[in-house]
Task: structure prediction
Amino acid sequence: MVAVALRCRLATFLVFAQIAFILLFAFFTEYDDDAKPIPRKLSDGSNPLHKYYPMFQDVHVMMFIGFGFLMTFLKKYGFSSVGLNMLIAATCIQWGTLCLGLFDCVETGRSRISLGITSLIEADIAAATVLISFGVVLGKTSALQLFVMLIVELVLYATNEWIVTDILKISDVGDSIIVHTFGAYFGLTVSVLLRRSELDEHPNEGSNYQSDLFAMIGTVFLWLYWPSFNAGLLTGEVQHRVVINTYYSLAACCVTAFAISALVDKHGRFNMVHIQNSTLAGGVAIGAAANLLVHPFGALIIGSSAAILSVLGYKYITPFLNSKLGIHDTCGVNNLHGMPGILAAIISSIAVSAASEQEYGYSLYEQYPAMAPPLNSTELTRIQRQFPDVTAGIGRTASAQAGMQIVAMLVTLGIAISGGIVAGVLLRLPGLASPPAESLFDDITAWEVPETEVYKPSESNNAVSPRSNNEIK
Amino acid sequence: MVAVALRCRLATFLVFAQIAFILLFAFFTEYDDDAKPIPRKLSDGSNPLHKYYPMFQDVHVMMFIGFGFLMTFLKKYGFSSVGLNMLIAATCIQWGTLCLGLFDCVETGRSRISLGITSLIEADIAAATVLISFGVVLGKTSALQLFVMLIVELVLYATNEWIVTDILKISDVGDSIIVHTFGAYFGLTVSVLLRRSELDEHPNEGSNYQSDLFAMIGTVFLWLYWPSFNAGLLTGEVQHRVVINTYYSLAACCVTAFAISALVDKHGRFNMVHIQNSTLAGGVAIGAAANLLVHPFGALIIGSSAAILSVLGYKYITPFLNSKLGIHDTCGVNNLHGMPGILAAIISSIAVSAASEQEYGYSLYEQYPAMAPPLNSTELTRIQRQFPDVTAGIGRTASAQAGMQIVAMLVTLGIAISGGIVAGVLLRLPGLASPPAESLFDDITAWEVPETEVYKPSESNNAVSPRSNNEIK
Amino acid sequence: MVAVALRCRLATFLVFAQIAFILLFAFFTEYDDDAKPIPRKLSDGSNPLHKYYPMFQDVHVMMFIGFGFLMTFLKKYGFSSVGLNMLIAATCIQWGTLCLGLFDCVETGRSRISLGITSLIEADIAAATVLISFGVVLGKTSALQLFVMLIVELVLYATNEWIVTDILKISDVGDSIIVHTFGAYFGLTVSVLLRRSELDEHPNEGSNYQSDLFAMIGTVFLWLYWPSFNAGLLTGEVQHRVVINTYYSLAACCVTAFAISALVDKHGRFNMVHIQNSTLAGGVAIGAAANLLVHPFGALIIGSSAAILSVLGYKYITPFLNSKLGIHDTCGVNNLHGMPGILAAIISSIAVSAASEQEYGYSLYEQYPAMAPPLNSTELTRIQRQFPDVTAGIGRTASAQAGMQIVAMLVTLGIAISGGIVAGVLLRLPGLASPPAESLFDDITAWEVPETEVYKPSESNNAVSPRSNNEIK
Result:
């Protein structure tokens, strides 16, 4: 009886949301000009699609394969990890398009959201934010709760993204502040509000040999395609530099994560949790400064630092947060996205404080538009005579820009945490099918799990090795 | 004795086929001009390869990882799913090149088949057709039977592709009619002819926890790269639009498939079969109309409709077909490729009936060449003065084109079903090593399965955790 | 106590190496000009990044997913396969950048190594060499030993690459000689020096059903992206031709590998070892000649020949080498990289012996620079008047070039084997934590393996299917 009601509730939510998305798309979206027919012309052979598509697909793989399989490390929660990840991301793609598009319309004064390859990348990146928060509450929430969370989170994500990028005018090419920091602390706040005593030492919360291998599929694809995540919306030599910085940051991060993982283990062994997660922290930590001339050796230092921070986080901070502060963090998101995201903001602040037009040329004003000379200044007139694309800034100094990177991080933390409180309160509403204590971290609450045990004596041996029947019985 | 004979038979078939392919390639193929040296020149820096290669590789991944792992859901048939999938696809690449090339030579009057990056994409797409049919008969056929099936199927596929594209002049950018509908109903017809009573409730026909996770690797890669499948051979703003339409159709399809899956389950749980398959139906259903101005909200509606059709198909139609009509469909191909393919044809018919030069510009005549003004008409002369590339059509009206899309679907169904009958009769020939009843859906018929049981009591605990021996014993 | 010391040793090595890399990068590297800001300019929209990035990412996936998962076939060594593969590759990326860059500076006279997208591809390819050697010694070495091996190997790899490419001036577009042959025989030599009696029939050395499926993820991605490996650093119509040749070589290789695998099995079944490895040999065998006009049917013959060589190698040569010559080769690298690499050199020698300017145009002199007319020859002057990029060669004839391809292979073998002896002696030094006999091919030496047995009687059934408890008990 209750099950029937719940069934209707989740399905009803999903159906209504999908209908709402269809209506909103009908009234508020249109194809980008680059995807519309050209009146009285043939197809145009060249199109921005070609430029963005390969990195778009890399980011797409990170969202669905990367995050999805990374979370399959839980031994009884694989269907949910990869399945609910897919449901969440596919919902975020639609809802994120609308939330981001709204602010885009506000900025540009257009009445319809324009859909093209760059907006697809942005929709995928919006999904990343929610998937990061999902990692914190993994195994402790119903699909219905997750759905409510994502609806709230993306509105706040888009708001924060607009404040940070368009008002505060900071640069965060790899979305370390906007996505990683936001998603992590939003999720951690929600987790505090969903705290329950049964989480302590729950027998389902752990991996097994196979689930750890499945998780490595996610880890490795995230690691490989991270340069595309950081560089996907950029162009020219800036994009090239972001790729190089991210590549070397991740390489150093991987080596250092292995080293520290062995060092903190009493037998000197590697720990799968660290390898699955901390090897990726270098991609986050370089994110807000990857466009800057940090030099390749700077990228290595940043990657190594992130690895140290992340492994020590898993070893010492996560248990502390859980036992002392009551913050349960299933995937250790604080160590992969949270602290490395804050580190990224600090690094970007230091790196930008030394940036000058001498070093960067006028592309500095593309990346940090507030640093461009102000309207009607002779300096601006001089530049615009040669490059009409440069827009007026406010003549912000490098150190002011450095400060603003930190302000943006603090604003992000503020919105993430207060938004997390709102979402957490909503998620505690009765009727959202919070999973029962014994079914935490268990697919059984949301999935038809296959009936037949593969290793069931009468037939299972066959499955793996028909010839070993006798030995086993 | 029988085994020895069979061994020779399969290997002999494969060896002879490979020798035949080598000879046919020697006499009938050559490199495309873009892959030949330029006499008395240096290498040309620009080459069409760059334009097509990223989407080619996406399609390539769909064929071998996507289809291959999607079918590993069967608990005892994983080696065959991914392994035979690889064998079939690698054979199809060669045989498909020849079959498609023959008709290409007929059209162009060339005496040799020209091999370049677009023909590689076409060969991969030809493989898709056979892999779809493979999904219907999965677990019920020997490698030898599959080999015979593919030889027959690709000849008919190329014939149908030629009729539908070059004679009937319809547009099917995502191959929903040409590949999905054809492959599904060809396979279903073969399956009817291979019907045997032992299929009912066969204990091997089912998944387990691990096999369902392996299958999700296939599902997610198919889902991610589907925009490349639909847009891979296109160019310019049409390609851009196909990517956008396919992306949003799949997003809506995913959300709706989860909703309907929960709705039709009596406990409101998600069913892995639906998630693995029905989330993809939106890619098929948009395929024949993805180039048209269906508007993003139209793409969402199409994706959602496909999901509803597909999940209900798995829930109600597949069991009905199996029990009442004797059509056994291992992967439920009718629900993922068959019915959504027919839906795609109907959608394309509706969408094209409203297409006009006013809306699409002259690119309409590139996509629907029969709609171009006829030879020697003043209208054509006027257009060609500006765009000499536009070729004469027959002045087909939009509603005639709409009708022709349906005719093409019916022709495809006719050729697929009659071809399936021929193939089915051939596959019933004795000596093709049809698997014995107890080994249906079991790798043991075709593979050396590893000897050692990993969880064998005496050493198995070790396999997972050597340190927990004592605790377990 | 010993464990503590060892822990410190490995971590210390890794930490010192990472610090050394940072210092060396600080003093000897810089961004490529294409990744530096353009003084007093805006960003440049066009950048070589776009041209190389898609194939770079394909190669990147091959290194980390391809090699990593291919080696997970061992039932108890999955963490090490994919994890240590990641550690090795991430280290090689840094150390390889430095080793290759040193010789690049020698050639160009620059004082700093220039880092850009092509150097990232080269660093990944350097990693391939070490990962191939890793395949030989898989399961028989500690992380510390592997680390020492890679440091030595990459120095010699870069030296050999410089001798073969810049001194002997041979062409090896797919690195069949430089990477595959070198890595295989270096590793095999190391393996001889690490020979120990406990390797015979070790119970851990084998696969299980799941581990074989994980391995197929690696196989299929390697197979799919091999055309990118062979063509990634090329351009224009040569690149196009390499893609076509590699694609068809692999297709024929796959079909033939299945055929021969069935043929050599007494029950006519396929063997997973052959399918996982021999299907790839065609990518190696075509590598050194893929730029030449071998004709598509030539590519099919080359792929088929490699498959025959490789499967027969697994069936007959590997057991022979192990039992008679004491060469233990865990992954059968000799059959996938070693012998096919030598075959590739021979094929390239035959194919180039027929190459002429008439057939290839002046692009011949780009690919085989020694064949260009010598300095101050009238012929060179004539060509340079039209194409100033063509540089003076030594007027080497086609047959001399053919001979030089063989010389290069012999030089490579010489350096690989003598380098392997040096590395092997180093690896036998006490204190490098060579794994104890009972823990060969076992993750337990290097990893914290999850404590909880998933199929532990009291709770395991739950793990797979909570509803089947009653049925099973």
About this structure: The first strand of chain A starts at residue 29 and ends at 31. The CA atoms of residues 204 and 251 of chain A lie 33 Å apart. Chain A has a mean pLDDT of 92. The domain at 2-34+51-352+397-443 of chain A is CATH 1.10.3430.10 (Ammonium transporter fold).
